[in-house]
Amino acid sequence: MPILVQKFGGSSVADAACIKRVAGIAVNAKKKGYQVVVVVSAMGDTTDKLINLSKEITNKPNAREYDLLVSTGEQISIPLVAMAIQSLGEKSISQTGLQVGIMTEDRHGKARITEIKTDKLKKYLKEGNIVIVAGFQGISEVTGEITTLGRGGSDTTAMALAVALGAERCDIYTDVDGVFTTNPDTVNEASKLKTISYEEMLELASLGAAVLHPRSVEIAKNYEMPMRVRSSFKPEDEGTLVQGVEKMELNNPVSGVALDESQARIAIAGVPDKPGIAATVFETLAKKNISVDMIIQSTSKDGTNEIAFTVDKENIEDAKVVSAEIAKEINATDVTVDVNIAKVSIVGAGMIGRPGIAAAMFKALADNKINIQMISTSEIKVSCVVESKDGDKAVKAIHKVFELDKVSKEKQKV
Ligand code: ASP
Ligand code: MG
Fold first, then answer.
1. Closest of 376, 380, 393, 366 to residue 255, by C-alpha
2. CATH 3.40.1160.10 residue spans of the chain
3. Is the CB of 156 under 6 A from ligand 1?
4. What is the DSSP letter of 239?
5. Could you report the average pLDDT of every consecutive run of 10 residues in the chain (414 residues)?
6. Could you identify the atom of ligand 1 that is nearest to the CA of residue 153?
7. What is this structure's pTM?
8. Domain 341-403 maps to which CATH number in 1.10.260.40, 1.20.1600.10, 3.30.1300.20, 3.30.2130.10?
9. 212 CB under 6 A from ligand 1?
């Protein structure tokens, strides 16, 4: 029997009625002939509440205790889903990460899965159970302590399980109908994509399009595991299929526009223009575990450069301190921080080999009098940093220029 992994996010298990709906979806899949593994997140905003509770105690929680705390949300939702399935007359058993054997690296708050033990899972499936697994959590392969995978990590649990079990597909159920050309909450004309490639999805997920945890897409891509993003409130709707680019007909150069408001910009001015300086700056940041996204170095003037880069807003305080230390060490003149930035990006596998795509994006911004502060590109992405107040306007303008409101379903091959 083929295996299907279904993942339900917090909003899909927010209350008893939602949990019963989820049970129905899982039972349906079982009746269609699948062995079903269900991965669930914590109910509604439980994880946020747990994090806020810890903040009421301390703003520097111990990492081990933090993981132990935030992993409890999923421990509440899994038995409830199992009970709901049992009430429908099917066999079901719930499992924490520890019980299954979801092994991770020895790191708290953002651990990566290193191995999933499948013996127990396979046994339960064989016995006819729908197995419910807690998302987002695992145990350190070194210490046996409970670890978590980072916010939104249940997608990754689901995908890793799908790969480990050799599933036919992994369905990610959420509260939106699929993957859209841009955020439908800000742009009315956003349309749902029937298919999207792993590569594009990876870029969009990394850019803060909140639908999927980036690591889950990375796993799907590496192991070519097909996945569907779909709504638990409209289970008959097939949502968006995420698959290999070779299976797609690339009619449009751009598939989606994303807005990322999670970054801040740091600029170090008066940096001596000599070999080894950039290495020192970014090595020091890396050593403090601060990830840098975009980097711009201006051309040299009077023997000095400006080096500007973006970091996650949540790391900004640390990054500020480290940058000031670095500036002193390398004799730079000053450090400025700007948190009022937004990164607008276009993503599309169809832009490869098609000139003029970046220019069309810049023109859309210019026509709307939006100033570009930084630019970065990859094979299938162009990103521009703009002032945060211009973010939404920029997305709308770019969405229109690439006619993403007209993405027709017929054009896209499933
Ligand atoms: N419950 C966790 C969170 O809210 C994991 C998840 O939802 O995927 O981040
Ligand atoms: Mg959640």
1. 380
2. 3-246
3. no
4. -
5. 97 97 98 98 98 96 97 98 98 98 97 96 98 98 97 96 98 92 89 92 76 90 95 93 85 91 95 92 93 90 92 93 93 95 95 93 98 94 97 96 75 36
6. 8
7. 0.84
8. 3.30.2130.10
9. no
